[in-house]
Amino acid sequence: MPVKLSDNYDLSKYVIILTGATDGIGKEMAKFLFGFNPKRLIIPARNKEKGNKLLEYLKSSKGHTDNVEVWEMDLADLQSVKNFANKFINEVGELHMLINNAEIDFDNLNLEKGAYWNPLKGYANTKLMNIIICKELSRMLQNDHITTYSHNPGVILTNISHLNTGFSISTLTINTLARLFGITAEQGATNVLYPALSLENKETGKYYDEGIEQEPNKVAYDEEIAKKLWSVEERFRNIHVGVA
């Protein structure tokens, strides 16, 4: 049975950053979070026009968006991400929830960046890396009262295919799966937010599939692999934006 959100969440003391909120499940997550009255909901957006359309979409449900802000940021540009982070630290200074949501562009995955995947050798795939990084981050922050979760929201019936131009096996596969097994963007958003907002869920580093806790591949528990992957990620970041 699909998970459901309560109507009683109160986020009035929460400052939240939500990425990927101008389309798909991100847009629905923004709507849910906005409905729970956050102190501040900050939406990074690469496309200013889409950001403004999101504000109008949210405004239509309440008549105002006083607690929602769209800030310029391009997740594909690490210097842009660093600029966003510095601005946030200087102007806001408190953060209670960070939701990293992103669409998947199957046809633009650059296989020439093979060195980035090498720490996982034969185990490599983008979702497994997400789980491993989440678990490593949970270990690093275990004494800071910060919890981390990784999610698979499910196969979503959204406009994800707009990123993929032309024919390819990956495009055909994902579009076929979406038509056969896809769920609505609203349910996908629910699947991601349900563990994060649950009062019972306090254990960090867990993986959730469609809102339900699942055991990931055993490789996700290998701390040596996690440290190698984290090290490669740090080198990649430093090459592109310099040491923070």
UniProtKB/TrEMBL annotation:
Coiled coil: none annotated. InterPro entries: NAD(P)-bd_dom_sf, SDR_fam. Keywords: Oxidoreductase. The keyword Oxidoreductase applies. GO terms for molecular function: oxidoreductase activity. Pfam families: adh_short. PANTHER family: PHOSPHATIDYLINOSITOL-GLYCAN BIOSYNTHESIS CLASS F PROTEIN, PHOSPHATIDYLINOSITOL-GLYCAN BIOSYNTHESIS CLASS F PROTEIN-RELATED. This is NAD(P)-binding protein. It comes from Rhizophagus irregularis.
